[in-house]
Amino acid sequence: MKKLIYINKTAILIYIIYLVLISSCNTSKTNTNAKLNLDTANLLVKLKTDSFNIDIHTVIPFTTAATQRVLNKVFINVGNSNGRINVEGDGNYISIKNNHIKADLPFFGEQRQFTGNYGQAISGIKFNSMPKDYTISPHKKKEAIIITFVIEDSKTNTENYNIDLIVFPNKHVDVFIRSSHRTLINYLGTLDFVEEEA
User: Fold this and answer.
1) SS3 of 37, please?
2) Taking 90 as the threshold, does the pLDDT of residue 108 lie above it?
3) Nearest to 105 by CA among 173, 49, 46
4) Fewest beta carbons less than 10 Å away: which of 18, 36, 44, 56?
5) Residue 108 phi, psi (nearest 5)
């Protein structure tokens, strides 16, 4: 009888310790998520109401065998590779003001249809118009905001871009562009809100 009571006391003690540990972990996690949710909510409001720029500092091309051959010859700079190209300070950007979107981005990858010569200056991605299907909402899986839209290339009437901007509270932005004429390309940038002139 005494042995049975000892086992019950031990089981109860272990159960209490378990509950204390779980509740302290949950409290810590809840506080962290509450802060992130507040930051994300504030970011959502600002992205819906304010103008902003995204300064692009890195290009991550979709590397096929052909792209690798070309980029291995082109990029000999330290820190660049055919899978990650530093373009910081080159003036590459995406600008959104009153739902009007303007961009000047380099392109490194394969073109499925002829859109110009290979290289940043001629065959880069450029647009300057009102987008179609513009949406802005919280990301379903990340503490971030996702902006999606479709827009036409400013050089042609035939090429369209499907664009996803994933904006994080720390102002880091992942940009994914799917083109009707080119391979997928990814950019990394930094968000900067534009103060409107009075």
Assistant:
1) helix
2) no
3) 173
4) 18
5) -130, 115
Residue 122 has pLDDT above 70, yes or no: no
For the chain, domains (ranges, CATH) are 50-194 (2.40.128.410)
Report d(CA 27, CA 21) in Å as an integer. Answer: 10
Say what the pLDDT of residue 31 is: 38
Token pair of 17 as six digits:
């310790």
Of 122, 120, 123, 105, whose CA–CA distance to 165 is shortest?
Answer: 105
Kindly calculate the radius of gyration of the chain based on its CA atoms and give it in whole angstroms.
24
* Side chain identity at residue 129, one-letter code: S
Q: Can you tell me the distance from the alpha carbon of 109 to that of 11, in angstroms, rounded to the nearest whole number?
A: 63
pTM over 0.85: no
pLDDT digits (tens, 9 = 90+) for 2-21: 554 455 666 565 656 655 55
Q: What is the pLDDT of residues 14-46, one digit of tens each?
A: 656 655 555 555 444 433 444 458 889 999 999
Cα gap 69→109, rounded to integer Å: 11
Give the number of C-alpha atoms closer than 13 A to the C-alpha of residue 63, restricted to the C-beta side: 12
Which pLDDT belongs to residue 32?
42
